[in-house]
Amino acid sequence: MIRRTPTVDLATTIGSLRLPNPVCTASGTAGHGDELARHLDPAGLGAVVVKSLHAGPWPGNPAPRVHATPAGMLNSVGLQGPGVEAWLEHDLPPLVATGARVVASIWGRTVEEFAAAASLLADAPPEVVAVEVNASCPNLEDRRNLFAHSTTATGEVVDAARAAGRPLWAKLSPNTPELPEMAGAASGAGAEAVTVANTLLGMVIDVEARRPLLGAGRGGLSGPAIRPVAVRAVFDVHAAHPGLPIIGVGGIANGEDAVQFLLAGATAVQVGTATFADPAAPARVLADLAGWCDRHGVREVAELVGAAHVVQGSADREESG
Ligand SMILES: Cc1cc2nc3c(=O)[nH]c(=O)nc-3n(C[C@H](O)[C@H](O)[C@H](O)COP(=O)(O)O)c2cc1C
Protein backbone atom coordinates (compact mmCIF):
# COMPACT_ATOMS: atom_id res chain seq x y z
CA MET A 1 0.00 0.00 0.00
CA ILE A 2 1.48 3.36 -1.04
CA ARG A 3 1.30 5.98 1.75
CA ARG A 4 1.36 9.73 1.25
CA THR A 5 3.55 12.00 3.33
CA PRO A 6 1.09 13.84 5.60
CA THR A 7 3.14 17.01 6.20
CA VAL A 8 2.82 18.40 2.65
CA ASP A 9 -0.25 20.37 1.58
CA LEU A 10 -0.91 18.92 -1.85
CA ALA A 11 -4.14 20.82 -2.63
CA THR A 12 -4.32 22.69 -5.91
CA THR A 13 -6.73 25.12 -7.53
CA ILE A 14 -7.66 24.88 -11.21
CA GLY A 15 -9.91 27.82 -11.98
CA SER A 16 -13.07 27.36 -9.91
CA LEU A 17 -12.12 23.81 -8.99
CA ARG A 18 -10.22 22.83 -5.85
CA LEU A 19 -8.57 19.39 -5.97
CA PRO A 20 -7.01 17.64 -2.96
CA ASN A 21 -3.83 16.99 -4.94
CA PRO A 22 -2.48 17.73 -8.42
CA VAL A 23 -2.10 14.21 -9.88
CA CYS A 24 -4.78 13.05 -12.33
CA THR A 25 -5.04 10.34 -14.94
CA ALA A 26 -4.58 11.26 -18.63
CA SER A 27 -7.49 10.75 -21.00
CA GLY A 28 -7.39 7.49 -22.93
CA THR A 29 -5.03 5.72 -20.55
CA ALA A 30 -7.34 4.95 -17.61
CA GLY A 31 -10.43 3.58 -19.33
CA HIS A 32 -13.95 4.97 -19.28
CA GLY A 33 -14.98 3.89 -15.79
CA ASP A 34 -13.50 2.22 -12.71
CA GLU A 35 -10.95 0.08 -14.62
CA LEU A 36 -8.03 1.29 -12.45
CA ALA A 37 -9.85 0.70 -9.14
CA ARG A 38 -8.28 -2.75 -8.77
CA HIS A 39 -4.83 -1.15 -8.76
CA LEU A 40 -5.29 2.18 -6.94
CA ASP A 41 -7.87 4.23 -5.04
CA PRO A 42 -9.39 6.54 -7.67
CA ALA A 43 -10.66 8.85 -4.90
CA GLY A 44 -7.06 9.35 -3.76
CA LEU A 45 -6.10 11.03 -7.05
CA GLY A 46 -6.78 14.68 -7.85
CA ALA A 47 -9.24 13.54 -10.52
CA VAL A 48 -9.85 10.72 -12.95
CA VAL A 49 -9.97 11.97 -16.55
CA VAL A 50 -11.77 9.38 -18.67
CA LYS A 51 -11.16 8.53 -22.32
CA SER A 52 -12.57 11.07 -24.77
CA LEU A 53 -16.24 10.52 -25.55
CA HIS A 54 -18.09 11.30 -28.76
CA ALA A 55 -21.80 12.12 -28.54
CA GLY A 56 -22.53 8.65 -29.97
CA PRO A 57 -20.68 5.32 -30.01
CA TRP A 58 -17.46 5.33 -32.01
CA PRO A 59 -15.57 2.23 -33.26
CA GLY A 60 -12.03 3.63 -33.40
CA ASN A 61 -9.32 2.63 -35.86
CA PRO A 62 -8.26 -0.72 -37.35
CA ALA A 63 -5.56 -2.82 -35.61
CA PRO A 64 -2.71 -2.68 -34.91
CA ARG A 65 -3.35 0.38 -32.75
CA VAL A 66 -0.30 0.56 -30.52
CA HIS A 67 3.42 0.06 -31.02
CA ALA A 68 6.32 0.40 -28.58
CA THR A 69 8.91 3.03 -29.55
CA PRO A 70 12.17 4.08 -27.89
CA ALA A 71 11.10 5.51 -24.50
CA GLY A 72 7.47 5.66 -25.46
CA MET A 73 4.68 4.34 -27.63
CA LEU A 74 2.80 5.22 -30.77
CA ASN A 75 -0.98 4.81 -30.77
CA SER A 76 -3.79 5.15 -33.25
CA VAL A 77 -6.64 3.94 -31.04
CA GLY A 78 -8.85 6.47 -32.77
CA LEU A 79 -11.06 7.59 -29.88
CA GLN A 80 -13.08 4.37 -29.59
CA GLY A 81 -15.88 4.79 -27.10
CA PRO A 82 -19.47 3.99 -26.07
CA GLY A 83 -20.88 7.51 -26.56
CA VAL A 84 -21.91 9.91 -23.81
CA GLU A 85 -25.34 8.40 -23.09
CA ALA A 86 -24.08 4.83 -22.63
CA TRP A 87 -21.15 6.17 -20.59
CA LEU A 88 -23.50 8.04 -18.25
CA GLU A 89 -25.59 4.91 -17.79
CA HIS A 90 -22.96 2.14 -17.57
CA ASP A 91 -19.40 3.41 -17.01
CA LEU A 92 -19.84 6.48 -14.84
CA PRO A 93 -21.83 5.01 -11.90
CA PRO A 94 -19.13 2.50 -10.80
CA LEU A 95 -16.50 5.23 -11.11
CA VAL A 96 -18.59 7.67 -9.04
CA ALA A 97 -19.09 4.88 -6.48
CA THR A 98 -15.33 4.85 -5.84
CA GLY A 99 -15.59 8.45 -4.59
CA ALA A 100 -13.48 9.79 -7.47
CA ARG A 101 -13.76 13.28 -8.88
CA VAL A 102 -14.42 12.67 -12.57
CA VAL A 103 -13.42 14.75 -15.57
CA ALA A 104 -15.34 13.86 -18.74
CA SER A 105 -13.32 14.31 -21.93
CA ILE A 106 -15.26 15.00 -25.13
CA TRP A 107 -14.37 15.09 -28.80
CA GLY A 108 -16.10 15.63 -32.13
CA ARG A 109 -15.38 15.93 -35.84
CA THR A 110 -17.32 19.17 -36.09
CA VAL A 111 -18.17 22.00 -33.69
CA GLU A 112 -21.76 20.70 -33.67
CA GLU A 113 -20.58 17.27 -32.52
CA PHE A 114 -18.71 18.88 -29.60
CA ALA A 115 -21.90 20.77 -28.72
CA ALA A 116 -23.94 17.55 -28.87
CA ALA A 117 -21.54 15.70 -26.56
CA ALA A 118 -21.48 18.63 -24.14
CA SER A 119 -25.29 18.94 -24.08
CA LEU A 120 -25.60 15.28 -23.15
CA LEU A 121 -23.34 15.96 -20.15
CA ALA A 122 -25.51 18.78 -18.81
CA ASP A 123 -27.44 16.38 -16.56
CA ALA A 124 -24.41 14.40 -15.41
CA PRO A 125 -24.08 14.05 -11.63
CA PRO A 126 -22.04 16.63 -9.68
CA GLU A 127 -19.15 14.17 -9.34
CA VAL A 128 -18.36 15.09 -12.94
CA VAL A 129 -16.43 18.13 -11.79
CA ALA A 130 -15.12 19.36 -15.14
CA VAL A 131 -15.13 18.68 -18.87
CA GLU A 132 -11.91 18.36 -20.83
CA VAL A 133 -12.44 19.47 -24.42
CA ASN A 134 -10.16 17.36 -26.60
CA ALA A 135 -9.41 19.98 -29.23
CA SER A 136 -6.47 17.91 -30.51
CA CYS A 137 -8.56 15.86 -32.93
CA PRO A 138 -9.15 16.32 -36.68
CA ASN A 139 -11.63 18.99 -37.81
CA LEU A 140 -13.63 17.53 -40.73
CA GLU A 141 -14.51 21.02 -41.93
CA ASP A 142 -10.91 22.21 -42.17
CA ARG A 143 -9.28 19.54 -44.36
CA ARG A 144 -8.83 17.41 -41.25
CA ASN A 145 -6.46 19.90 -39.64
CA LEU A 146 -6.62 19.60 -35.85
CA PHE A 147 -9.05 21.98 -34.14
CA ALA A 148 -6.22 22.91 -31.79
CA HIS A 149 -4.10 24.18 -34.70
CA SER A 150 -6.48 27.08 -35.31
CA THR A 151 -7.30 29.79 -32.78
CA THR A 152 -10.76 30.15 -34.33
CA ALA A 153 -11.59 26.43 -34.18
CA THR A 154 -10.12 26.11 -30.67
CA GLY A 155 -12.36 28.93 -29.48
CA GLU A 156 -15.37 27.42 -31.25
CA VAL A 157 -15.10 23.97 -29.67
CA VAL A 158 -14.56 25.44 -26.21
CA ASP A 159 -17.55 27.71 -26.70
CA ALA A 160 -19.65 24.73 -27.87
CA ALA A 161 -18.70 22.80 -24.73
CA ARG A 162 -20.26 25.43 -22.46
CA ALA A 163 -23.46 23.44 -22.93
CA ALA A 164 -22.13 20.97 -20.35
CA GLY A 165 -22.45 23.63 -17.65
CA ARG A 166 -19.14 22.65 -15.96
CA PRO A 167 -15.65 24.10 -15.73
CA LEU A 168 -13.90 23.53 -19.05
CA TRP A 169 -10.30 22.41 -19.64
CA ALA A 170 -9.07 22.64 -23.25
CA LYS A 171 -6.72 19.81 -24.26
CA LEU A 172 -4.23 21.30 -26.70
CA SER A 173 -1.82 19.92 -29.28
CA PRO A 174 1.99 20.17 -29.02
CA ASN A 175 2.23 19.99 -32.81
CA THR A 176 1.94 23.73 -33.42
CA PRO A 177 4.43 26.52 -32.81
CA GLU A 178 1.41 28.67 -31.91
CA LEU A 179 0.49 26.71 -28.79
CA PRO A 180 0.46 29.83 -26.55
CA GLU A 181 -1.93 31.51 -28.99
CA MET A 182 -4.20 28.44 -28.87
CA ALA A 183 -4.16 28.61 -25.08
CA GLY A 184 -5.16 32.26 -25.27
CA ALA A 185 -8.02 31.42 -27.64
CA ALA A 186 -9.24 28.63 -25.35
CA SER A 187 -9.14 30.92 -22.34
CA GLY A 188 -10.89 33.69 -24.26
CA ALA A 189 -13.69 31.29 -25.18
CA GLY A 190 -14.26 30.32 -21.56
CA ALA A 191 -11.82 27.53 -20.70
CA GLU A 192 -10.77 27.75 -17.05
CA ALA A 193 -7.61 25.77 -17.79
CA VAL A 194 -5.61 24.22 -20.62
CA THR A 195 -4.26 20.69 -20.69
CA VAL A 196 -0.79 20.70 -22.28
CA ALA A 197 -0.48 18.54 -24.20
CA ASN A 198 -1.72 15.69 -26.33
CA THR A 199 0.52 13.28 -28.29
CA LEU A 200 3.10 14.26 -30.91
CA LEU A 201 2.22 13.26 -34.47
CA GLY A 202 4.27 10.23 -35.53
CA MET A 203 4.62 7.13 -37.69
CA VAL A 204 6.48 3.81 -37.72
CA ILE A 205 7.13 1.97 -41.01
CA ASP A 206 7.17 -1.84 -41.17
CA VAL A 207 10.23 -2.29 -43.40
CA GLU A 208 9.35 -5.86 -44.43
CA ALA A 209 5.83 -4.90 -45.50
CA ARG A 210 7.08 -1.49 -46.74
CA ARG A 211 4.00 0.08 -45.25
CA PRO A 212 3.07 2.12 -42.19
CA LEU A 213 2.87 -0.28 -39.27
CA LEU A 214 -0.23 1.00 -37.50
CA GLY A 215 -3.61 0.11 -38.95
CA ALA A 216 -4.46 3.80 -39.33
CA GLY A 217 -1.00 4.62 -40.72
CA ARG A 218 -0.39 7.72 -38.63
CA GLY A 219 -0.33 7.78 -34.84
CA GLY A 220 0.42 9.79 -31.73
CA LEU A 221 3.69 9.50 -29.78
CA SER A 222 3.58 9.50 -25.97
CA GLY A 223 5.69 8.50 -22.98
CA PRO A 224 9.07 9.69 -21.67
CA ALA A 225 10.26 10.38 -25.25
CA ILE A 226 8.00 13.43 -25.40
CA ARG A 227 8.54 14.75 -21.84
CA PRO A 228 11.01 17.54 -22.73
CA VAL A 229 8.65 18.70 -25.49
CA ALA A 230 5.73 18.79 -23.10
CA VAL A 231 7.70 20.53 -20.33
CA ARG A 232 8.74 23.22 -22.78
CA ALA A 233 5.16 23.54 -24.03
CA VAL A 234 3.95 24.11 -20.46
CA PHE A 235 6.79 26.57 -19.84
CA ASP A 236 5.92 28.57 -22.96
CA VAL A 237 2.17 28.65 -22.22
CA HIS A 238 2.82 29.76 -18.63
CA ALA A 239 5.21 32.47 -19.83
CA ALA A 240 2.55 33.79 -22.22
CA HIS A 241 -0.40 33.41 -19.82
CA PRO A 242 0.87 33.43 -16.23
CA GLY A 243 -2.65 33.52 -14.77
CA LEU A 244 -4.04 30.62 -16.80
CA PRO A 245 -4.09 27.27 -14.97
CA ILE A 246 -2.24 24.53 -16.89
CA ILE A 247 -2.56 20.79 -16.47
CA GLY A 248 0.76 19.35 -17.63
CA VAL A 249 0.95 15.97 -19.34
CA GLY A 250 3.55 14.08 -21.36
CA GLY A 251 5.87 11.32 -20.23
CA ILE A 252 5.38 11.67 -16.48
CA ALA A 253 6.54 8.44 -14.83
CA ASN A 254 7.67 9.53 -11.35
CA GLY A 255 7.50 12.33 -8.81
CA GLU A 256 10.47 14.26 -10.15
CA ASP A 257 8.89 14.31 -13.61
CA ALA A 258 5.77 15.83 -12.04
CA VAL A 259 7.91 18.41 -10.23
CA GLN A 260 9.40 19.49 -13.57
CA PHE A 261 5.92 20.24 -14.92
CA LEU A 262 4.91 22.14 -11.77
CA LEU A 263 8.09 24.24 -11.88
CA ALA A 264 7.42 24.95 -15.58
CA GLY A 265 4.03 26.39 -14.62
CA ALA A 266 1.51 23.54 -14.34
CA THR A 267 -0.96 23.60 -11.44
CA ALA A 268 -1.77 19.92 -11.93
CA VAL A 269 -0.41 16.99 -13.93
CA GLN A 270 -1.75 13.90 -15.66
CA VAL A 271 -0.14 10.47 -15.88
CA GLY A 272 -0.81 8.57 -19.11
CA THR A 273 1.47 6.05 -20.81
CA ALA A 274 3.19 5.13 -17.52
CA THR A 275 -0.12 3.54 -16.50
CA PHE A 276 0.23 0.85 -19.17
CA ALA A 277 3.47 -0.44 -17.59
CA ASP A 278 2.22 0.05 -14.02
CA PRO A 279 -1.54 0.51 -13.49
CA ALA A 280 -0.81 2.08 -10.09
CA ALA A 281 1.47 4.70 -11.69
CA PRO A 282 -0.73 7.75 -10.96
CA ALA A 283 -0.87 6.86 -7.23
CA ARG A 284 2.86 6.13 -7.21
CA VAL A 285 3.63 9.48 -8.87
CA LEU A 286 1.50 11.19 -6.21
CA ALA A 287 3.29 9.44 -3.35
CA ASP A 288 6.66 10.23 -5.00
CA LEU A 289 5.69 13.88 -5.39
CA ALA A 290 4.70 14.15 -1.72
CA GLY A 291 7.97 12.49 -0.71
CA TRP A 292 9.98 14.83 -2.92
CA CYS A 293 8.28 17.87 -1.41
CA ASP A 294 8.90 16.54 2.08
CA ARG A 295 12.61 15.92 1.40
CA HIS A 296 12.99 19.39 -0.13
CA GLY A 297 11.20 21.28 2.63
CA VAL A 298 8.27 22.18 0.37
CA ARG A 299 5.23 22.61 2.64
CA GLU A 300 2.69 23.45 -0.10
CA VAL A 301 2.88 22.00 -3.57
CA ALA A 302 1.44 25.30 -4.85
CA GLU A 303 4.74 27.04 -4.09
CA LEU A 304 6.40 25.03 -6.88
CA VAL A 305 4.05 26.26 -9.61
CA GLY A 306 5.95 28.33 -12.16
CA ALA A 307 9.02 28.62 -9.91
CA ALA A 308 11.36 27.85 -12.85
CA HIS A 309 10.38 31.20 -14.34
CA VAL A 310 11.68 33.30 -11.48
CA VAL A 311 15.13 33.97 -12.96
CA GLN A 312 14.20 36.10 -15.94
CA GLY A 313 15.78 35.14 -19.24
CA SER A 314 17.51 32.00 -18.00
CA ALA A 315 15.47 29.82 -20.34
CA ASP A 316 15.53 32.26 -23.21
CA ARG A 317 19.13 31.66 -24.19
CA GLU A 318 18.93 28.03 -25.14
CA GLU A 319 18.04 26.72 -28.55
CA SER A 320 19.26 23.64 -30.32
CA GLY A 321 22.24 23.70 -32.68
C1 LIG B 1 -3.41 4.75 -25.96
C2 LIG B 1 -3.65 6.22 -25.78
C3 LIG B 1 -4.93 6.73 -25.92
C4 LIG B 1 -5.18 8.09 -25.75
N1 LIG B 1 -6.45 8.57 -25.89
C5 LIG B 1 -6.69 9.89 -25.66
C6 LIG B 1 -8.02 10.39 -25.69
O1 LIG B 1 -9.00 9.66 -25.89
N2 LIG B 1 -8.21 11.71 -25.48
C7 LIG B 1 -7.16 12.58 -25.22
O2 LIG B 1 -7.39 13.77 -25.02
N3 LIG B 1 -5.89 12.12 -25.15
C8 LIG B 1 -5.64 10.81 -25.36
N4 LIG B 1 -4.36 10.34 -25.26
C9 LIG B 1 -3.26 11.28 -24.96
C10 LIG B 1 -2.91 11.27 -23.47
O3 LIG B 1 -4.00 11.69 -22.68
C11 LIG B 1 -1.70 12.19 -23.18
O4 LIG B 1 -2.04 13.52 -23.53
C12 LIG B 1 -0.46 11.78 -23.97
O5 LIG B 1 -0.37 10.38 -24.10
C13 LIG B 1 0.82 12.30 -23.31
O6 LIG B 1 0.94 11.84 -21.98
P1 LIG B 1 1.73 10.49 -21.57
O7 LIG B 1 3.08 10.57 -22.23
O8 LIG B 1 1.80 10.52 -20.08
O9 LIG B 1 0.94 9.36 -22.10
C14 LIG B 1 -4.10 8.97 -25.42
C15 LIG B 1 -2.81 8.45 -25.25
C16 LIG B 1 -2.57 7.08 -25.42
C17 LIG B 1 -1.17 6.56 -25.22
Give a quick summary of the entry.
By secondary structure, the protein is α/β, with parallel strands linked by helices.
How would you describe what is shown here?
With 321 residues, the chain is an alpha/beta fold. It has a single domain, classed as Alpha-Beta Barrel (TIM Barrel). Helices cover 27% and strands 18% of the residues. It has eight helices and 16 strands. The chain has an eight-stranded parallel beta sheet. Helix 4 links the parallel strand 9 (168-172) and strand 10 (193-196). Helix 2 packs parallel to helix 3 and helix 3 runs parallel beside helix 4. It is globular, with a radius of gyration of 18 Å. The relative contact order is 0.17. The mean pLDDT is 94.
Question: Main traits of this protein?
Answer:
single chain; 321 residues; alpha/beta; TIM Barrel; four-stranded antiparallel β-sheet; globular; binds flavin mononucleotide
